Amino acid sequence: MNQDWEDRVSAAWASLDGYGEDGAAEFRALIDTFVAELPADSPLGPFEQACAWDSTGHSDKAVPLYREALARGLGEVSPYKARRTKIQLSSSLRNTGRAREGVELLTPELAAPSDELDDAVRATLALCLSSLGRDREGLSLVLGALAPHLPRYQRSMAHYARQLTAPEDGPTA
Is residue 1 predicted with pLDDT exceeding 70? Predict the structure, then answer.
């Protein structure tokens, strides 16, 4: 779509907290008005609707819409939004008891070109792993993501993160 549309959608998202618990349906209706402006086959429509359902506590309704956005080619329209979709879809899958699918979807993102969403990928993947009882792997991802942001101890924390998933060869010094 155009920049005006993107700006209006961004403004709507910035107002989400003002809707409160009782305004969720009203907020989703607002998003639907923007989606109605899009061509019928646009991947942006199901993306925005999925985000609206997800952000108002309905992961179950968001999952098929996220999948539809990806199937319609969101990655060609906006690689950034496609990556966001994978993160959010993985979280929704976890919330609906399908954490394994979330892990399968997000794991390839660890090798994707780096961007500002890298930490969100790791945090969401860590939650999915934890839901599967793979807490050490999840903690390793979170520590690895956190380490570069620390004012000190970056090297140590990165090392500890790697150690959490390293094969156990016995005690280390």
Answer: no
